[in-house]
Design brief:
This protein has 286 residues and is of the alpha+beta class. It has 7 helices and 20 strands. The chain starts with a strand and ends in an 11-residue tail after the last strand. The protein binds manganese (II) ion (MN).
Length: 286
């Protein structure tokens, strides 16, 4: 099943090009603060699923192009991210920060944006801002000290994710945490629909140029171990989001570009890149 948020936080299911509104069915209030309806839906999905499926049988839905898709998930308890997690990307960056040795880092959850939102570049002097094409992983069942044997039981689903990054010497967390630096979407596709996530093709274009073309089979820390490693340190919660690391081919983006990400069985989204105002600071002067 493909779960979306749309038109200001309504919850929906995307099926055959139509969006079916399940906001009332699952008892969510899109106006609530914080906007955690999707987190609640993920936590209670097994229980709600039969009612959602029955609703899909009766609902006409509306065409996908008649709604505005929001980020399918906001306000996760944690947004984990893995550094260099493909051998070829490690070589291109000449980076010693390989995920199997360094572990994960965190991005600000406020950096999450949706498939209809632009990537807004901060006004920072000589900023070298890169795209990173990544598979986004969403936790379903929480827990800590998870083993490889049970890791897949904790995964709710997957989405496309671009880990936008300013290259530089400043703290990685800050360089990756500007608003709109974690576009996700267009939907969260449940793990049962994706199937084997260890062999997913993924591509990213900037305008018409194919920049990244890889497959999750080449992950250094694989899908199961990504969950194990995160849960070795932190208690995972339903709706936690994990950026699984980028393959080779990262490169600069500039205002006016369009970034397109496509992941097999997960979906695709195209994002406009625009120049924003502000964003400079002592650490990164304007
Ligand atoms: Mn990354």
């Amino acid at each position: 099943m493909k779960l979306v948020r749309f038109d200001g936080g309504r919850l929906g299911v995307l099926q055959a090009g139509r969006v079916h509104d399940i906001t009332a069915l699952v008892g969510d209030d899109p106006a609530q603060w914080p906007p955690v309806g999707m987190l609640r839906l993920i936590r209670s999905f097994a229980e709600l699923r039969p009612r959602i499926e029955a609703h899909l049988g009766q609902s006409a839905g509306v065409p996908l192009d008649s709604v505005r898709l929001d980020a399918p998930l906001v306000w996760p308890h944690n947004l984990f991210a893995y550094p260099v997690n493909y051998v070829l990307h490690g070589e291109e960056m000449a980076s010693p920060n390989i995920a199997n040795k360094n572990g994960f880092f965190l991005k600000a959850t406020s950096s999450i944006s949706g498939p209809a939102d632009p990537i807004v570049l901060p006004a920072i002097r000589d900023a070298d801002i890169h795209h990173e094409c990544e598979l986004g992983l969403v936790i379903g069942k929480g827990g800590r000290h998870i083993t490889r044997e049970t890791a897949l039981d904790h995964i709710f689903g997957y989405c496309c994710l671009v880990d936008v990054t300013i290259r530089g010497k400043q703290e990685r967390v800050m360089r990756k945490s500007f608003d709109s630096f974690t576009p996700i979407g267009p939907a969260i596709v449940t793990a049962d629909e994706v199937g084997d996530a260890d062999h997913l093709g993924m591509k990213l274009w900037v305008n018409d140029e194919l920049r990244q073309d890889a497959n999750t089979r080449d992950l250094i820390v694989d899908i199961r171990e990504i969950v194990v490693m995160a849960a070795s340190a932190a208690t995972l919660e339903p709706g936690d989001l994990i950026a699984t690391g980028t393959p080779a081919g990262v490169g600069p983006i500039k205002a006016g570009d369009t970034v397109r990400i496509e992941i097999e069985k997960v979906g695709a989204m195209s994002l406009d890149v625009i120049q924003g105002q502000g964003g400079g600071s002592l650490a990164m002067p304007a």
